[in-house]
């Protein structure tokens, strides 16, 4: 499940000021400008802006210099985007600051973004937060969201997840998709607010319907898995497809999973393999593992051990425990790669430390038999104890090793196993 803590981007031009400028130009046209001017206004804003851009800039600059905050904001937009004049982020920041100091919330927000990113001004995230807060307190949804993100992360401000939740909610209720998504995440997690899958689903749906692909993916996951809501795999597939059309690799992967199993859709392993490959080539670790598995087993695709090893390795390097185990297995057996017990042992150990029971069993087996390593019964027993909770073969080997250990060694290993917790590797 994705958590999406990013800031909203710059606000665009104020339609109010553009309308004023248009009215002024129209009046100019009525005062003797060519009749073509008024025809252009009637044709539409796009053609109008293109033809009368210079005059538009002149009127907006004049209003800005007279101290009109909305015009100052729009002049900043023009400078930031190179609309009718040379792009100049530093000048844009100056005009936004003037409007911001007059209390104009959109300018306060944009100035905050520039300070956060260090665009056109020296980076100053603490000041950025101050401007976000001032705009947020005026009800600007984008500022409420960005302030929530900073409070949520505790970056350059004391962490306050309860306050963050309040700001997310205020922005979400105004229809901001990013805030709706993050509010959904909070409700689904249930860490700082009572867990509420139904409410999470509703907020994800609102954001998803606005086209936010992360919300489309999370909505699909909840529907596919029936996480606190009625399971609906057909609907899940629809949302995955909408996110995939926007290029989301997790959505592509999830569609592949459903095609592989035939969940909510006709089973099609060949197409699943194709989707896994696309997602894998984009760097999606779990897709790399699944593609490797299909290649190793010849399932929906021609068997190719060498290629399987390559994909297992890519997934393993990204911290996928199952990929680390499978790479270790291929190295131990010499499938698609030269046999290398030392390397196999290393990959088994990495997967075992993440809690992979098969890797724990294999590591215990190698330590028991001395395969590529000196025999070490106490260490073997420890790993087999961990693996034996759900693996009968590990239980048998554990019992075999136990006979060769002293009661002190057994007690020590059991104490270690009771206290042991997996160390998960960070995955992208």
From TrEMBL:
InterPro entries, A to Z: ISR_Activator, Sel1-like, TPR-like_helical_dom_sf
Pfam families in the cross-refs = Sel1 (PF08238)
Give yes or no: UniProt keyword Metal-binding.
no
For this UniProt entry, which residues form the secretion signal?
1-19
Keyword match Cell cycle = no
User: What keywords sit in the KW lines?
Assistant: Signal
Q: What is this protein called?
A: TPR repeat protein
């Amino acid at each position: 499940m994705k958590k999406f803590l990013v800031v909203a981007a710059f606000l665009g031009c104020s339609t109010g000021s553009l309308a004023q400028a248009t009215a002024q130009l129209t009046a100019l046209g009525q005062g003797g400008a060519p009749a073509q001017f008024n025809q252009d206004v009637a044709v539409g804003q796009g053609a109008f802006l293109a033809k009368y851009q210079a005059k538009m800039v002149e009127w907006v600059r004049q209003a800005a210099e007279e101290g009109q905050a909305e015009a100052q904001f729009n002049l900043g937009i023009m400078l930031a985007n190179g609309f009718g004049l040379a792009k100049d982020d530093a000048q844009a920041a100056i005009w936004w600051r003037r409007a911001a100091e007059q209390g104009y919330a959109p300018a306060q927000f944009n100035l905050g973004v520039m300070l956060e990113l260090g665009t056109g001004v020296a980076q100053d995230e603490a000041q950025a937060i101050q401007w976000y807060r001032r705009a947020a307190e005026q009800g600007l949804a984008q500022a409420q969201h960005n302030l929530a993100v900073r409070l949520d992360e505790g970056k350059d401000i004391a962490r306050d997840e309860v306050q963050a939740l309040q700001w997310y909610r205020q922005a979400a209720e105004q229809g901001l998709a990013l805030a709706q998504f993050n509010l959904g995440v909070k409700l689904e997690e249930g860490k700082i607010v009572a867990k509420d899958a139904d409410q999470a689903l509703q907020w994800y749906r609102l954001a998803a319907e606005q086209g936010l692909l992360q919300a489309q993916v999370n909505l699909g996951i909840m529907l596919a898995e029936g996480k606190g809501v009625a399971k609906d795999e057909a609907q899940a597939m629809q949302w995955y497809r909408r996110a995939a059309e926007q290029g989301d690799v997790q959505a592509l992967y999830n569609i592949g999973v459903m095609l592989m199993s035939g969940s909510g859709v006709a089973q099609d392993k060949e197409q699943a393999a194709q989707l896994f490959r696309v997602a894998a080539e984009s760097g999606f670790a779990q897709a790399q593992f699944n593609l490797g598995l299909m290649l190793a087993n010849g399932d929906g695709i021609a068997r190719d051990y060498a290629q399987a090893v390559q994909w297992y390795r890519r997934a393993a390097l990204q911290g996928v425990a199952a990929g680390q185990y499978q790479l270790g297995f291929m190295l131990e057996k010499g499938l698609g790669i030269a046999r290398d017990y030392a390397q196999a042992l290393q990959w088994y150990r990495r997967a075992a430390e993440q809690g992979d029971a098969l890797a724990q069993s294999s590591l215990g087996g190698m330590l028991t038999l001395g395969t590529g390593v000196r025999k070490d019964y106490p260490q073997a027993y420890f790993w087999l104890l961990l693996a034996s909770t759900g693996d009968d073969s590990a239980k048998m080997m554990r019992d075999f090793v136990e006979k060769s250990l002293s009661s002190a060694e057994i007690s020590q290993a059991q104490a270690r196993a009771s206290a042991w917790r997996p160390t998960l590797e960070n995955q992208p």
